[in-house]
Design a protein that fits this description.
The complex is a heterodimer. Chain A is α/β, with parallel strands linked by helices. Chain A contains 22 helices and 19 strands. Chain A has a six-stranded mixed β-sheet. In chain A, strands 15-16-17-18 form a four-stranded parallel β-sheet. Chain A has a three-stranded parallel β-sheet with strand order 10-13-14. The radius of gyration of chain B is 21 Å and the shape is elongated. The chains are: A alpha/beta, B alpha+beta.
């Protein structure tokens, strides 16, 4: 990229590339060029493990070259438009629109406008049918691909589930068809639709009933599946893991070694999408993890490592693992962090082994303020667990605790909201009751409250979201109940959560809304400086689409859902059973205690807890 | 709760290196992080501070602004051992090939001087601008030889007029057939530090350079020597 341009923008290191660990290949050896885009800034995208894994897995293939693409920040976008420059990939500096594939990882719904923004900056038509043979095949994956319908019109293909093996297969199909001369975009898409785990939205017609709900999905060919089953990696010990990977020069959101310990979750919290769509649980062995850790350290030189999973203390060999890592991390001055600790698993012993717990504050997620509601959402922790956990922290001189909650959960009443304030108060009181508490400093509790968003493939997928006015009322109610200045109260913008719900449960009719948003230059909705709810209201009304239909409407239990075209392993019957239990306030045992018949076991998997 | 740590014998090691190409876009802090990791990868026995959060101690000689390249950066890092036990050949061998584009290790040695003795830096600035010519070079040369040379400096506390002529030890502008070339020796001590960027700004304002098409005009800033008086720093 032009040096004068780079010298005139904020953080030029976002655009210069050349980082340690990037992959450069000779174009003459390449049969397939893959531009992998994280539709957000460099700092966010470079912190993402999924992108790192797929970048590495694709580049393991000799004749495939995968490069990185991020959304340029506003100042750079302005310069690009001023000088009519098109978006390029970081490694080669070649134009994105000249690649064979352009892949997007879709981690949150609010990135959809940025996806369109990236397509536009690349000089590509937004709708899939407008893009001829000369443009890259546009493919999406990641958690949002479990309901791809709102963005179906812009993508050629969606990769459903875990992509390490699937993406390589897709590239192989592409290379083979190109080599044999039978390639046309249409033929390729038809062939891709027959591979396991790929959804080609243009090959399915959607019809609607008079009441506006979906009537059915109809495949255009007899030889493509009527339901797309997600892909999983059967044995995590045997699949590629990025132990040799790129390391940013500039500061990013999460800049450390990330060691993935297992996939899936045994818990089944009823609001949590990841806990359902990542099933079944599949673990890596301690030996494999230790080897990978040493390899990562030798290749990177980082002094921080985080163990990653949905709930790290549920790893069956967590003690063996932390014991084995303890000496090695101490000797090499590596600090080890365990995010996502459940408060019922937080012990003094674990705390001593993990360095990040020794410094900084502790974070726990009770999610709801009363036991009744915690049972309804199947969180399976109680106030005693919380008080025991904070006492462990107070014993060693800690003074600050962060607590995460959610507002607007199904069945929630004002009593549950007040319960949050009460719980925070009890955590403060526990500090003074603890005889070993830090005498030099005052305790502090930070209460962070997000807004419930009903997500596909959860027992709460049919639930209506509280209106944002109602959510704001609840936020104000909680604010009025928190009087202690030792309690800091943060909450999310309810209108952001509303938009998230619209796109999380949306269907194909939302694509015109997104197009209109793109026309108006909407992008970076996840950034508060860019998010403009008034503008969104205008867009919906200009398109004649009522966003409440998707967010605050309870979906009928027998309704055809936009994401019914996808099979994520977990069955609808199971989700319905869990929903009923939520209303009865009955928790469900975790997968290790008892199989609850969710259906994900049919997908198989090594070192899983499924029968 | 301060953990008891053994006192480990350590000594400073000085590394002279380049920071060129894409590395010019990373900041001082970024370079610090990059070096910490590089030393670990190379297997250098880095000494960790013995406080509550042990960390490597790295110190860089003079700041270099983002967008500037250098052939002569200096960094001190504490390594385990003493002046007699540290094997410089082994250190050089371990650092012989860095795996970072634009970062080349030039020298590795035990320092006998302090960074605070540094007084000046030499720079070469090349400006490819519309209308670059002998005549424009002469005009630029004149513009930089004015005394006092008052410019608007932006600092954290606001903007103020500063005379930079006292911070320019020598400056010469020429035309090399393609670009305007500034060779300058600028103050780099605690009393005053002059970034070569300011010379470019003066020429932008007073000689109209770099006012054309951003995509065709380019400039580069290269630090070529770090000096103590007239001698090269070691």
């Amino acid at each position: 990229m032009n040096s004068t341009l780079l010298k005139s923008v904020l953080k030029p290191g976002r655009y210069s590339g050349g980082e340690h660990g990037q992959v450069i290949k000779d174009k003459n050896d390449i049969n397939c060029r893959f531009a992998f885009c994280f539709p957000d800034t460099y700092e966010i995208g470079m912190s993402n493990l999924g992108m790192r894994v797929l970048y590495g897995a694709l580049n393991e293939e000799k004749d495939i070259w995968c490069e990185r693409v991020f959304a340029p920040w506003l100042d750079m976008q302005e310069k690009m438009r001023e000088h009519s420059l098109q978006l390029t990939a970081l490694e080669s500096g070649d134009k994105v629109k000249d690649f064979d594939f352009l892949g997007f990882t879709l981690q949150y719904e609010l990135c959809y406008t940025t996806v369109l923004n990236v397509l536009d900056l690349a000089g590509m038509p937004l709708r899939a049918y407008e893009r001829g043979e000369e443009f890259p095949i546009v493919i999406g994956g990641g958690h949002c691909a479990y309901n791809p319908e709102p963005i179906a019109e812009f993508f050629d293909i969606f990769s459903i589930g875990e992509g390490e093996e699937a993406l390589v297969e897709l590239c192989r199909l592409y290379i083979d068809m190109k080599k044999s001369g039978e390639y046309t975009k249409a033929k390729f898409l038809h062939a891709a639709a027959k591979l396991e785990g790929f959804y080609v939205p243009s090959l399915y017609d959607v019809s609607y009933k008079e009441d506006g709900t979906i009537e059915k999905f109809t495949p255009k060919y007899d030889d493509i599946p009527t339901k797309i089953r997600k892909r999983i990696i059967k044995d995590l010990d045997k699949v590629y893991y990025p132990t040799k990977t790129y390391a940013p020069y500039i500061e990013t959101v999460q800049d450390k070694m990330v060691l993935e310990v297992y996939r899936g979750c045994i818990r089944g919290c009823r609001f949590c999408q990841a806990g359902m769509v990542c099933r079944p649980v599949r673990e890596k062995t301690v030996d494999k993890l230790f080897d990978d850790a040493k390899c990562m350290y030798a290749n990177s030189g980082y002094d921080e490592m985080t163990l990653s999973s949905l709930s790290i203390s549920d790893y069956s060999n967590i003690d063996e693992l932390t014991d084995k890592f303890a000496d090695w991390t101490t000797k090499n001055h590596i600090s080890l962090s365990l995010p996502s600790l459940r408060l019922d698993s937080f012990t003094r012993e674990l705390m001593d082994k993990v360095s990040t717990v020794r410094t900084g504050s502790l974070t726990f997620a009770p999610e709801a303020g009363t036991q009744r509601l915690r049972d309804a959402i199947n969180k399976n922790v109680c106030e005693e667990d919380l008080l025991r956990a904070v006492n462990v922290a107070y014993d060693v001189g800690k003074t600050s605790v962060k607590l995460y909650f959610m507002n607007g959960l199904p069945t929630e009443t004002d009593e549950d909201i007040e319960g949050i304030a009460l719980l925070a108060k009890n955590v403060i009181e526990a500090f003074y009751q603890n005889p070993n508490h830090n005498k030099q400093r005052r305790p502090s509790v930070t209460v962070s409250v997000s807004c419930f968003v009903p997500k596909p493939f959860t027992p709460f997928q049919w639930e209506k979201q509280n209106t944002f006015e109602e959510l704001m009322r609840k936020q104000d109610l909680l604010k009025s109940k928190i009087t202690d200045r030792k309690i800091v109260y943060n909450y999310h913008d309810a209108t952001v959560s509303f938009l998230e719900a619209v796109f999380a449960r949306g269907d194909r009719r939302l694509s015109k809304v997104l197009l209109k948003a793109a026309e108006k230059g909407v992008k970076f909705d996840a950034w508060s400086e860019c998010f403009d709810f008034e503008r969104w209201k205008e867009i919906f009304s200009e398109c004649g689409v009522d966003p409440n239909y998707y967010a605050t409407r309870g979906f009928g239990l027998d309704e055809v859902l936009p994401w019914d075209i996808i099979d994520c392993g977990v069955t609808k019957q199971f989700l319905l059973r869990e929903r009923e239990k939520a209303y009865e306030g009955v928790p469900t045992k975790n997968c290790r205690e008892q199989c609850n018949g969710c259906g994900a076991n049919k997908l198989g998997g090594e070192r899983s807890c499924c029968p | 709760m301060l953990p008891v740590r053994e006192k480990v014998e350590h000594t400073a090691l000085r590394i002279k290196f380049t920071k060129t190409g894409k590395l010019q876009y990373i900041s001082h802090l970024d370079l610090h992080r990059t070096f910490c990791r590089l030393l670990v990868r190379c297997g250098i026995p880095v000494w960790y501070s013995e406080g509550f959060t042990p960390h490597p101690r790295l110190q860089f000689a003079t700041p270099l602004s983002v967008g500037s390249e250098s052939l002569c950066e200096y960094m001190d890092v504490y390594v385990i051992g003493n002046a007699d036990t540290v094997d410089l050949d082994v250190m050089r061998w371990k650092l012989r090939e860095t795996d970072i584009d634009g970062l080349e290790i030039k020298e590795v040695y035990l320092p006998s001087t302090k960074f605070s003795t540094i007084t000046h830096s030499d720079y070469t600035v090349r400006i490819k601008t519309d209308g670059a010519s002998q005549a424009l070079a002469a005009k630029c040369n004149e513009a930089l030889h004015v005394s006092p040379l008052v410019i608007l400096k932006r600092t954290k506390s606001g903007e103020k007029d500063v005379d930079i002529s006292t911070q320019i030890k020598s400056v010469d502008v020429s035309f090399d057939g393609e670009a305007i070339v500034i060779k300058a020796c600028l103050a780099a001590d605690s009393a005053g530090f002059l970034k070569p960027d300011y010379l470019i700004n003066v020429l932008k304002d007073r000689c109209g350079i770099l006012s054309g098409d951003v995509l065709k005009e380019e400039y580069s800033i290269l630090r070529t020597a770090v000096l103590v008086g007239d001698e090269e720093f070691h």
